[in-house]
């Protein structure tokens, strides 16, 4: 549809599109019966889940619980519906960020499969590791890759704490 609109020269300006999307999200958000913070937090997480399942290839990071709690307190203190909607739209515009891979994950994902194959071939010639020959490549390589990515993420999180992505 975007290509059709562009080819006709009648594309919708991006600010109007953002306003439309935010209005639709707010309508979905308000349709819920929000009585407490848990309901509010669940509604926000449901919106991010909808984003991530509807848009192939793009994933968005949900805001932290603390940020959602601050927004909830401001949202409950806002009086009428228009002030609540403006607060919600500002929160979503400020907190919706594309999820991105860090460099360590990318390097581990690219380097590990060839290294795993080389290690498996070398291990087949070592008498103590002869049983490695019986593990199929289609199981060994993905397992080694997942293990390397998890190790890279955990190591980065341990050393950098909250600064890691």
From TrEMBL:
Domain of life: Eukaryota
Protein name in the entry: Calcium ion binding protein
Species of origin: Linum tenue
């Amino acid at each position: 549809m975007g290509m059709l609109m562009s080819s006709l020269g009648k594309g919708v300006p991006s600010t109007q599109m953002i306003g439309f999307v935010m209005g639709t999200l707010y309508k979905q958000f308000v349709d819920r019966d929000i009585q407490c913070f848990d309901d509010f937090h669940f509604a926000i997480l449901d919106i991010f889940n909808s984003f991530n399942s509807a848009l192939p290839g793009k994933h968005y990071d949900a805001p932290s619980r603390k940020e959602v709690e601050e927004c909830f307190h401001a949202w409950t203190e806002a009086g009428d519906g228009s002030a609540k909607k403006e607060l919600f739209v500002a929160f979503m515009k400020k907190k919706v960020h594309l999820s991105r891979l860090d460099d360590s994950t990318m390097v581990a994902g690219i380097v590990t499969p060839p290294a795993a194959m080389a290690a498996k071939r070398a291990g087949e010639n070592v008498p103590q590791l002869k049983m490695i020959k019986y593990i199929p490549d289609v199981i060994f390589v993905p397992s080694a890759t997942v293990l390397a990515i998890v190790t890279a993420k955990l190591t980065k999180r341990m050393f950098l704490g909250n600064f890691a992505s």
